[in-house]
Amino acid sequence: MNKRCLEILESSKKYGWVLEPESKEIMRLCGLATTRFAWLRSPADVEQARGDISFPAIVKVVSPEIMHKSESGGIVTSIMSDDEVAKAFSDLSGLKGFAGIIVEEMASGAEVIIGGKKDPQFGKVVMIGIGGTSVEIYRDVAMRLAPVSHRESMAAIESLRGIELLRGHRGRPRVDLEALAGFFSLFSRSFVGLGDGVESIDLNPVICNGDRMIIADARIIL
Amino acid sequence: MNLKKLIEPKSMAIYGISKSNPEHPANIIFNKNRNHTTARIYCINPAGGEFRGEKLYRNLKEIGEHVDVAVLAIRSEIIPATLLECIEAGVSGAIIISGGFSEAGRFDLQEQIRSIALEHNFPIIGPNGLGVFSMPFINTFFFPDERFVKPLEGNIGLASQSGGIMVDLMIRFTQEQIGLSRALSIGNKAVIDEIDALRFFNSDPRTDVIGIYFEGFEPMRGREFIEELKKTKKPVVLFKAGKTPSSARAISSHTAAIAGDYFIFSEIIKETDAVEVTSEPDFLSACEALSYYGKRKLDSVAIITASGGHGVIASDYFHQLGINVAQLPRHESDELRDMSSVNIQAIASFSNPIDLTGSTTDDDFITAARYALQRDYIDGIFVLFLPFIPKISSALPWKLSRLRAEFDKPIIAYVPYIPKFGVFIEGFEANGIPVTHSIDSATKMFKAIKRNKG
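^ Those are the sequences you sent over. The predicted structure of the assembly is below.
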């Protein structure tokens, strides 16, 4: 395993999970693209800290005590200026365990959820589904043993009831399913590679546009 | 572990024979095997003496001959010591009928027999199960004959975690005239579990279809089971009960919240060609269809009916199951019309479903069936057979079955079930065409034989 991955997993043990910016760093080290973001730990000099993240942007709280950011009011969307970033920083700084914010580029495309879980009977299994926060309601997901081959990834994707949503149904962004299968397969191998210390991973959503898959939120549970 | 000698033993030692209790499971097992199976029987009871003309051996040493399998219906506490005695005497394996292990909270005892078995590579079926039904070699299903059915000989091998469900299934199979090769009631599966059963049946020449009922796997055995399934050449039907909810810890992750035990199983099964069913009737239908036809390409079917309504219902079910009911092109449908008897030409529908109406004759049925079977784009036919149609005869099932021999395509018949239609049902079944009594289960039969992989 990559040394930096190991380092992050080790230092996150005390929280029981890996914070979003570091979860994303691990995913990037595995070769899986994420949205670009800057992690601001202090309100000083927002512009420099933001770097080349352009507007409109999204601001999210970073806190080891807040796993579900939207349910805790930890997300501000449609940020258009550095002043708004600074304001969001100050608004969110009152949240428990506050450890800064991330300013992140906004991505658009079809949303899928990709995840992995360690199961007592089956070992590591991976999941792909039509995403967004409603995934637990619709449960339109496919699941396979990890690691999953490219071919089996494709079969899993094609088994989704809502597959037409990824095929550009009524003018929606069209997703290159072969590329998505490749992404899913690589994720499954990465999940196995991260070892037994990882209980589950949620990449929700992964934004898909053409052959580009970008992880917009990541959570690794230890 | 090799199960051969547990399933086709030449000799068995029955532990637990009681001189005073004729209903003791060991006594019933004795009754069911003596003069009914081919294994040489030795009865064991530490008190010695005689039992119904047989010598009661105090222990294995007294027998002085090799014994293939020990059948244990004795108190659970003395089983570990008994197993060691069996191993020392060179017995090839044991079937433990007794309860009083993990199901009764005695995990320690179960662990003990498991370690003995693993240490000595000694196969054990059970405990807390009915054991093995494998005629004419052995039958440890301890029900008095008069309270049980006599299963028919066939090519379906069954394994079940639950003895009760196994018996229920055997009764249903027998009622439907479906035959079994063997039945393994693996109980608490301390040593031999579904994976071993799968492996055994896969290499068993008497078994063509494997049916397994189970509730859950030991840690990581689920993964091994799937890997074994991928290697299995024979069709497998799986009925898994026990839809446990996710654990509390899982709530923190979407993936874990969705991925309950049953959901994972049901999804992962899709990596294999196994048939997953969720009810006993579906288990039966799938096993039966596969025992006739095995797995095969089945993209499209023709429906041949004497009742339009039945045809529409069948079409709906096929559609839900992802099986195409291919339309006959216009010129073919015209051709079939011309080949049919004059009195149905104006009223029947020659598309698909092919609705021959209540005026149909035997010949019309045969003509339509043959015509459909000749089409390259039709992989099988579903015959909705209504015996009350006046002009069809009791010879039609036999006539249709000749087409079965002519074309290597599955034919499945629906016949409503009332005793007076028995002659039609038998006409099909005796000639190699499976019959169902519901449209739903017939369409599921087609789904079961449809190959998903490779």
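The longest strand of chain A covers residues 110-119. Chain A has eight helices and eleven strands.

Shout if you want it in another format.
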